[in-house]
Every structure is written in structure tokens, then in C-alpha cells.
Design goal:
Blueprint (H helix, E strand, L loop, with lengths): L12 H5 L4 H10 L1 H4 L9 E5 L10 H9 L3 E4 L10 H18 L3 E6 L2 H11 L4 E7 L13 H10 L12 H5 L6 E5 L20 E5 L11 H11 L20 E2 L5
Length: about 260
């Protein structure tokens, strides 16, 4: 296990400094673009990507552009800056996804990066009839509530979200913590310098759920070649033929499935 967290499960200064790997991940993405674009095409179904805390659709543009080139109808979440958990913002995001499902007459796959995964998992929990599958990228789906957050992070959160500590969405933890009833992939990196990876995986697994380890930083998850490949492969499956990601052969050098930690 990567030793990037202190005893409280918080990132250490060394672990956070390793997030500078994002520079190399972005360079690799550019270098491998022609190779990535040879990946099997999608089937045109809609995909919505929700961004991380303090980012907007610009932060997921590279991933969405890649998915569009591979034949998926990729969209941003179109709710501006993801400044935290907000019932009002969630409801607008939910309407957006429902409108796309109606427009395409197809179920929607939802992807969430970091805090965006909280929104994606909540939507899948509340609307399994319109969600094809859900993929989270370094999302703290099992992180303790806001009572366990202190210091500058809490101050920034409160500044960006007046009244955030009493927002109704904070009471919906069962929505994103429950194992999804739709096919689900929780991607995580043991080298994550922002979120303890053990908060990012499902604690209960079933035939439609997997925890997939990928290499890299937290900040670079939407620009990571390995992540892009795995996301496209997950989305390219037939709606009624979902299978866990194959980690055999050469893939075992990059990916691994995680069991629930003891």
C-alpha cells in the first residue's frame, strides 16, 4: 500500500507533493492521443461527467473530448463550479441527466471525478431506471461526514457554500455510500495525494460492482491515459452484458481489482 496518508487517513505533505505527477500525466495524454483514439468505438449513448471540488466542466474537457472521439455522446454536468454538496445544484444536475435520457431515448452513463462522484452515485441511487452505469474517479464515497473535516478545508467549504453545513444533501449519505444497483466501477489510486483510497471503494461488492485500482495522481485522473482507456472500455460494453474489467495478462501490470479492506 502506498504510504501517502497519516494515521488519521489524511494526505501527508509528501503525498500531496506527489500530485505534481499530473504534469507528466498530461504530457503522456498528449503523446498517446493517437494510440488512445484507436480504442474501440462507443455506441453513441449519452455520458455525463461531473467535475471535482472547485472545478467545473473545463476540468473534465479532456476526458469528454476523448469519449466523443470514440463515439460516445459526452456532456458536462453544466452546473458551473462544483463548490460542494448542494441539494439545489444536485436537483439541477438531475434534471439535466433526465433531459438527456429523454432526448436520446437511452439510459445515461454517469461519471464523477472526486466530489463529482458523490453527485453521480446519488443520481444512480435515486434514478436507476435512467442510469446505464456509474463510474467514479477517486471519489470519497465513504469519507466521514463534515464533522470530521476541520481547518482550512472546512473554512474554504463554508466560504464557497453559505449554509453548507446544514444543506439537506449532507443527510443523503446512504445514497452515495450504498452499493449501486446499476453496474458500477469505483476507480482509485493508491498513490492519491488528496483522498485516502480506502474511502474511494465500495465496501460491499456484487456481480455488477468493482473496485479498480489505477496508477497516478488524484488531480490527474481525468487526464490519465490508463484511466481514459479503462473508462472507454467500461462504457463500450453492451448495456445488458456488463462484466468486470479484465486485469489479466499485460493489464495486470497497470490495473488491479481491490477487495474490501479488513
Amino acid at each position: 500500500m502506498a504510504q501517502n496518508k497519516n494515521k488519521a487517513g489524511q494526505p501527508t505533505p509528501l503525498g500531496t507533493a506527489r500530485e505534481l505527477r499530473v504534469i507528466f500525466e498530461m504530457l503522456a495524454m498528449v503523446s498517446f492521443r493517437s494510440t488512445l483514439d484507436k480504442i474501440k468505438c462507443g455506441d453513441g449513448h449519452p455520458v455525463v461527467v461531473a467535475p471535482s471540488f472547485m472545478t467545473g466542466d473545463g476540468g473534465t474537457a479532456a476526458l469528454r473530448g476523448f469519449l466523443r472521439r470514440r463515439g460516445f455522446a459526452a456532456y458536462g454536468w453544466e452546473q458551473g463550479l462544483n463548490s460542494g454538496m448542494s441539494e439545489q445544484k444536485y436537483l439541477a444536475y438531475e434534471r439535466h441527466v433526465k433531459e438527456l435520457a429523454a432526448r436520446h431515448c437511452r439510459k445515461v452513463s454517469v461519471i464523477g471525478w472526486s466530489l463529482g462522484g458523490i453527485y453521480a452515485r446519488t443520481l444512480a441511487y435515486k434514478n436507476p431506471d435512467i442510469v446505464r452505469q456509474v463510474i467514479t474517479l477517486g471519489s470519497p464515497i465513504h469519507i466521514p461526514g463534515m464533522d470530521g473535516v476541520t481547518g482550512p478545508v472546512l473554512k474554504l467549504y463554508e466560504m464557497m457554500n453559505p449554509g453548507a453545513l446544514t444543506d439537506p444533501m449532507l443527510e443523503w449519505q446512504n445514497c452515495w455510500q450504498a452499493t449501486p444497483t446499476v453496474p458500477s466501477t469505483a476507480m482509485y489510486s493508491e498513490g492519491d495525494g488528496i483522498v485516502d483510497w480506502q474511502f474511494c471503494i465500495d465496501k460491499e461488492l456484487n456481480n455488477n460492482t468493482e473496485n479498480l485500482r489505477v496508477p497516478g495522481s488524484h488531480v490527474g485522473l481525468t487526464h490519465n491515459v490508463a484511466v481514459m482507456y479503462a473508462v472507454a472500455e467500461r462504457l463500450a460494453q453492451r448495456e445488458d452484458r456488463w462484466q468486470p474489467f479484465d486485469v489479466s495478462g499485460l493489464r495486470s501490470r497497470v490495473y488491479a481489482h481491490s477487495a474490501v479492506p479488513a
